[in-house]
Automatic annotation (TrEMBL):
Signal peptide: none
PROSITE patterns in the record: CNMP_BINDING_3 (PS50042), RHODANESE_3 (PS50206)
Name of the protein: Cyclic nucleotide-binding protein
Domain Cyclic nucleotide-binding: 12-112, 142-245
């Protein structure tokens, strides 16, 4: 039996939907270790989950506590994670040459949460054969902080729209009315500059979303989305988007709260244009204009919290949503600089 086949039998991994299982496999490291190697020690509080795939591991506790336990691959005991409680209650040592699967505990729990919170509703709404786009959408890290009830309501309120190749789903300059997710097909995202030149910004496909920026900022659409192939879109009306996605994802703080967070180590990001930043900004802030945020997000420290601000809070809402989608811990300054005055 291959390592992949063994993984499929483990608890609770065996409960994962196929797409989430594939994600877990991509995040899992298979380690082949010699006899005598220590996997973890009693008292460790690491962020990993270990499963035994081949060989034997002995679990020992401090003298006077439980006797040593031997776990052999292929047994019922090996279907469960090794010494999963944290801090660890045992030291794990390879008694023979072993193969172990090591994965991030939080990542596994996130995938299980998605399955348990939405699995029944996904099947009920669309049929088991048509859920791939939903699973892709739910891997977006912004959905980690959504209450399960919001996720369920979002899928229930989405309506399908059939689109043809060459069709403009939304146009630059139009008001924002819907949030879209691609159920099938592909689309291109373009933007016309002030000089009239049209540039290709991105190409998006199944499970990817668009249209949120105008809904978050209240400004007109800043790009045009045209179907590259025939497809089906799922759309969510602005009010539902505001209630179910914007409200829980975008966290707002006032200036006093933002100041305390900054003193505790949070970074400050000014998403206004370069000229606005030069004319006056909060001391120590990093200027990443909103139009560059997608490109420069990868340069930010994923372990650090960030406070986003602009002039009024409009652009901050968009930036906070975009960074939340990428897994960053962010909040937006309520009212922006206008709420605290130019002397900040």
């Amino acid at each position: 039996m291959s390592d992949l086949d063994v993984l499929k039998t483990l608890i609770p991994i065996s409960a994962l939907a196929p797409d989430n299982f594939r994600q877990l496999v991509a995040q899992t490291k298979i380690e082949h270790l010699p006899a005598g190697r220590i996997l973890f020690r009693q008292g460790d509080n690491d962020g990993y989950t270990y499963y035994l795939l081949a060989g034997e591991v002995v679990l020992t506790a401090a003298e006077g506590e439980d006797e040593a336990r031997v776990v052999a691959a292929g047994t019922d005991k090996a279907r469960y994670a090794l010494a999963q409680l944290k801090p660890r209650q045992f030291t794990g040592v390879a008694q023979t040459d072993v193969a172990v699967a090591r994965m991030n505990s939080a990542g596994l729990d996130r995938l299980l949460t998605v399955d348990q919170a939405t699995g029944c509703e996904v099947t009920e709404f669309n049929g088991a054969e048509d859920t791939e786009w939903m699973w892709r959408m739910l891997t977006n890290k912004a959905f980690n902080i959504l209450p399960p009830a919001n996720i369920n309501a979002m899928f229930a309120r989405m309506e399908p729209v059939v689109a043809q190749a060459g069709q403009a789903v939304l146009r630059q300059g139009d008001p924002g009315d819907y949030y879209y997710v691609i159920r099938s097909g592909r689309a291109t995202v373009t933007r016309k500059s002030d000089t009239g030149k049209v540039g290709l910004l991105n190409e998006i496909g199944e499970g990817e979303a668009f249209g949120e920026e105008a809904l978050l900022s209240g400004a007109p659409r800043n790009a045009t989305v045209i179907m590259k192939t025939d497809g089906v879109l799922m759309r969510l009306a602005k009010k539902d988007f505001d209630d179910l996605l914007k409200a829980p994802v975008v966290k707002w703080v006032n200036f006093t709260e933002a100041k305390a967070l900054a003193q505790a180590g949070a970074g400050l990001i000014d998403v206004r244009l370069e000229d606005e930043h030069r004319a006056g900004a909060i001391k120590g802030s990093l200027n990443i204009p909103l139009y560059l945020l997608r490109l420069k997000a990868a340069n930010l420290d994923p372990q650090r919290s960030y406070i986003i601000y602009c002039q009024t809070g409009s652009r901050s809402a968009v930036a906070a949503f975009l960074l939340s989608q990428r897994g960053f811990d962010v909040c937006a300054l309520e009212g922006g600089l206008n709420a605290i005055g130019h002397g900040a």
